[in-house]
Write a structure and sequence with these properties.
Number of strands: 13
Radius of gyration: 20 Å
CATH architecture of the largest domain: 3-Layer(aba) Sandwich
Structural class: alpha/beta
Keywords: Hydrolase
InterPro entries: His_Pase_superF_clade-1, His_PPase_superfam, NUDIX_hydrolase-like_dom_sf, NUDIX_hydrolase_CS, NUDIX_hydrolase_dom, Nudix_hydrolase_domain
Strand content: 25-35%
CATH superfamily of the largest domain: Phosphoglycerate mutase-like
Distance between the termini: 29 Å
GO molecular function, one term: bis(5'-nucleosyl)-tetraphosphatase (asymmetrical) activity
Protein name: 8-oxo-dGTP diphosphatase
Organism: Rudaeicoccus suwonensis
């Protein structure tokens, strides 16, 4: 349950998938799919399309192979292995709950089986799939499997201050920033974001606007998340963050570099001290977020005592990993 940000060899084939889970009579079940072409049982997964994000590919592949629309949860161990032609294949996985879908099998899959962990252990065709299964079982035992995301976004790259003659709050995104905003759409969709609070500054508002439009959401501007509002009332950013962490709807928050330390310090207060999330948070707090980056925090528990149990980075450069 650490950061999913990593470097890879240029000749590595990238793929993504998820361990879809649910409960039946209170008992954990996980979904394995059968591919008749290979006569194998494994997790739902597939290769990244050119320019596709890891999270977007995982959500797409799960929907295509199971007929269920997933909400990505905690990151799971990735699999790396050699292919027949000598290339490495690297698969990034998440646990995932079901947001919707019919369960109709339409894409290269002829069977889906909901199995207990013990049944899955005896069914899957590849020993390497035990890595993800064991992580899911361990997270469930710790109360860290059933989570909801909270996403912190730093706005995309904007026109330089020296190139803009208007009010700073009106300074727009540049071409790179608009690409950042576009790349965030499948990431936020994979986590099923239902609510977005944002600085009213143009560079923040337009970073999350494409996803809001695609999802049919109304953006909720908060002056306390702007640079100007933060300078006037520094404690408001922390209050907005606490409310987002405690809110029952899955929330994303978009803000600026000077405001991020207050937001991250607030997240730290709710981070389980024994969770790997704490180490990732320290890394991000010291180095900062990239422009256009999404920091995904997974929250276990409800009400006044939410616990952040995993944190992962989705950096803009990673949206190019699937490109040829």
């Amino acid at each position: 349950m650490t950061s999913n940000s990593f470097l890879r060899r240029p000749d590595t084939v990238p793929a993504a998938g998820a361990v879809l889970w649910r409960r039946k009579a209170g008992q954990l079940r996980v979904a394995l799919v059968h591919r008749p072409k290979y006569d194998d049982w494994s997790w739902a997964k597939g290769k990244l399309d050119p320019g596709e994000t890891w999270a977007g590919a995982a959500a797409r592949e799960v929907l295509e192979e199971t007929g269920f629309r997933p909400r990505l949860g905690i990151p799971l161990p990735r699999s790396v292995y050699s292919m027949q032609r000598g290339q490495l294949k690297e698969i990034r996985y998440w646990a995932a709950s079901i947001m919707g879908g019919t369960g109709e099998l339409v894409n290269e899959i002829d069977q889906l089986a909901w199995l207990t962990p013990a049944q899955a252990q005896g069914r899957f065709s590849y020993v390497r799939d035990a890595l993800q299964l064991n992580a899911v079982v361990d997270a469930d035992a710790r109360g860290w499997l059933d989570t909801r995301p909270f996403v912190i976004v730093r706005h995309g790259e904007a026109l330089a201050r020296k190139e803009w003659r208007g009010e700073d709050a009106d300074r727009p995104l540049n071409d790179a920033g608009r690409q950042h905003a576009k790349a965030l759409v499948p990431i936020l969709a994979a986590y099923g974001i239902e609510r977005i609070i944002t600085s009213p500054s143009a560079r923040c508002f337009t970073t999350v606007q494409p996803y809001a439009a695609a999802a049919g959401l109304t953006l909720r501007p908060r002056k306390g998340l702007s640079e100007e509002g933060f300078a006037e009332t520094p404690d408001k950013a922390a209050r907005h963050t606490v409310k987002a962490l405690q809110h029952p709807q899955v929330t994303a928050l978009c803000t600026h570099r000077p405001v991020l330390p207050a937001v991250l310090d607030t997240v730290r207060r709710f981070t389980a001290p024994d969770a790997p999330a704490a180490a990732v948070l320290e890394q991000v707090s010291s180095a900062g977020l990239d422009k256009g980056e999404a920091l995904v925090c997974q929250i276990a528990g409800n009400g006044d005592e939410p616990q952040v149990v995993s944190i992962e980075r989705h950096r803009p450069a990673e949206s190019l990993i699937g490109s040829s």
